Amino acid sequence: MTATANDTYKAPDTAPPILEAVGLTRHIPMHGRRHGQVVRAVDGVDLALRRGQILALVGQSGSGKSTLARLLALGDRPTSGEIRFDGRPVNAERRRDRRRHYGHVQMIMQDPFASLNRLHRLRYILSRPLRNFGTPGAAELEARIIELLERVNLTPGREFIDKYPHELSGGQRQRAAVARALAADPSVLLGDEPVSMLDVSIRLDILNLLTELRDRDGLSMLYITHDIASARHVADEVVVMFSGHLVEGGPAEAVTQNAKHPYTQLLLAASPDPDRLLSGEAGTGTAAASLAAAAGGPDADDDPDSAAGSATGADGGTEAGCPFRARCPHAQAICAERMPEAADAGSGHWVRCWLHT
Amino acid sequence: MTRRHHVRFRVPANRKVRVGLAVFLLLVLVAAFGQLFVGHVLGQSANRLHAGGNLESPSGRHWLGTTSFGQDVFAQLVAGTRTSLLVGLIGGAIATALAVLLGVLSGYTTGRSGAALTAFVNIFLVIPGLPLLILVASYTRGRGGWLTVAVIIGLTSWAGGARAKRAQTLSLRNRDFVEAANYSGESRTRILLLEVIPHLAPVIASTFLFSVVGSIAAEAGLDFIGAGHASTVSWGTMLYWVQSQGALQSGAWWWFLPPGLCIALVGTAAGLINFGVDELADPRLRTRKPGSAAGRSRRSGGVTPEGAR
Ligand SMILES: Nc1ncnc2c1ncn2[C@@H]1O[C@H](COP(=O)(O)OP(=O)(O)OP(=O)(O)O)[C@@H](O)[C@H]1O
Ligand SMILES: [Mg+2]
């Protein structure tokens, strides 16, 4: 496997936060039969993304990762809580302020087949953020687009500039999506499972591109993934999300090598062997089976909230207790009462579990 | 400035579409220049009574014979083509424009104004079109001629198309590329005009084709039941006289067949052209670059990514 710059470079843990979430909450109202109830997609999340670092956000399907990313990108409005960029609260009321935020924080979506409009050529797709967030003249525009294409290794840029998305492979499309995000000249990228739709053989290429952007250009990145093993591979820090809550976080090595929370331990046990990292094979044996059980079991589909791994409840009410308690092998009486505050496990590693308080 | 896409006219690969377009083009040519030909070359006119004997069968002088008033049927058919096509195109254009405007806006606008627009569309949807048309037409009868009829048809027949566009817009609104365009700093108007609406091109084209046919049929229907403008010559008024003069009973096929066939012909042409509308929103089906061979060879491949999913 190619060694990434992760091994050679590390921004100090003391690097100042650039993008922060404070008590960020998003309750999505439900419709139909369950009208009046809400999905607690994101529930009181505190998160700090540091300058020049990659922060991996790990959790199973439905834990609220995409919702959190969309909140951070201002693609969705929080129910409560605050987002800070560079220490200042982000105001999302006015379109002008939102646009300024888009210039700082850009999103790379999961599916490059859906995120690029198939009716436009790359020239048009990339020219829009360039024009909206800068004002290059007509002559300069083409040069800038080619430069962007080559920055994401779509070389020679001149050959790609007039292509339609359908003329590109999946990996090339995702590179184009990265180029579009870079066109706004952001300091933060939010990658929502940016490689999960791609063939295993090109995942590593895209991940290397992302780490390269961090190392060369000092970009900060939120890297969302299901796969805790790949998180360890690219990220400086890892946070683990379950049912709208962050349950554990800290330096990537500490969280993956010395997991404290039972849910993190379950994720690690079910993840593929590190030597087969990114090979896309599912975990084997009992760990995978128990994760499936934790996710709600094989019949999870008919119950939306267990399938999603997210909590639902009456509007306005607060969910008491740890969301993982029903599936936790170490559940105690207190787990049903409330969730503990984050406990320090040394050198920036923290966990929210009654076993470690 | 970003370079414009090369949208150049290209003969469609699909034979059905070619036949449909050819038929339509022929009708347009007849509508535009037919009367000159009839007047100067054949020396006939649609309204002249007793141009020949009553109910003469086709001859070199009267290509499609004469009516029971001795009018030249061919001259009437040519004049009727002009009226009917104009009514169809104008009525169809009005109906399509309203359908796109109200459908797309009601699908794209959220909140109270979106709900109000949707309610407006739904109200028009449940008002039965034909009775409304007859009602309005019988008020304006005689005034404004065929143009009034075309406008009334357009104003009363957009609701179905608007609903289809609303449904499509609703599904497009939540697509990833729309969200991505928002992150790219695009304004809502620009997203609507350049990201969403181009995807509706096939639906818009279909709506237009069938609104044209619908308007022609509606106008013919109005004339036929006598709610139209009796002194204009159209396919509909021709059928009205056919019926009131008992041409069917007297076996004057040269009088009653041509207008009916023309209406059927327009419908068929629209149906054939409709086979090609999907090309409008699929860059794979368009020629890629000027002189590129790849565009042609790819055109045969059918399934779009959306279709496949
Ligand atoms: N528009 C919505 N309406 C109702 N519920 C929603 C909506 N969007 C998300 N949810 C719910 O919020 C929860 C979190 O969804 P989210 O998409 O953030 O999960 P995720 O962690 O990104 O999952 P995945 O890994 O599958 O992408 C889920 O239970 C989902 O069902
Ligand atoms: Mg997601």
Offer a concise description of the structure:
The complex is a heterodimer of chains A (357) and B (309). Chain A has 357 residues and is of the alpha/beta class.
Strand and helix layout:
The complex is a heterodimer of chains A (about 350) and B (about 300).
Chain A lengths: L16 E13 L7 E14 L3 E5 L6 H8 L7 E6 L2 E2 L5 H10 E4 L3 H4 L6 H12 L4 H14 L5 H4 L9 H14 L4 E5 L7 H18 L2 E6 L2 H7 L2 E6 L2 E7 H6 L4 H9 L14 H10 L9 H5 L2 E4 L28 E2 L5 E2 L6
Parallel strand pairs in A: 3-8, 3-9, 6-7, 7-8
Antiparallel strand pairs in A: 1-2, 1-4, 2-11, 4-5, 9-10, 10-13, 12-13
Helix pairs in contact in A: 4-5, 4-7, 5-7, 11-12
Chain B lengths: L14 H27 L31 H36 L2 H16 L2 H12 L4 H12 L2 H15 L2 H8 L4 H9 L4 H24 L10 H10 L8 H21 L20 H5 L6 H4 L1
Helix pairs in contact in B: 1-2, 1-11, 2-3, 2-5, 2-6, 2-9, 2-10, 2-11, 3-6, 4-5, 5-9, 7-8, 9-10, 9-11, 10-11
Bound molecules: adenosine-5'-triphosphate and magnesium ion (MG).
Magnesium ion (MG) binds next to helix 1 of chain A.
Can you offer a commentary on this structure?
The complex is a heterodimer of chains A (357) and B (309). By secondary structure, chain A is an alpha/beta fold. Chain A has a single domain, classed as Rossmann fold. Helices cover 34% and strands 21% of the residues of chain A. Chain A is built from 13 helices and 13 strands. In chain A, strand 7, helix 8 and strand 8 form a beta-alpha-beta unit. The radius of gyration of chain A is 21 Å and the shape is globular. By secondary structure, chain B is mainly α. Chain B has a single domain, classed as MetI-like fold (Orthogonal Bundle). Chain B is built from 13 helices and no strands. In chain B, helix 5 crosses helix 9 and helix 9 runs antiparallel to helix 11. Chains A and B meet through helix 2, helix 3, helix 4 and helix 7 of A and helix 7 of B.
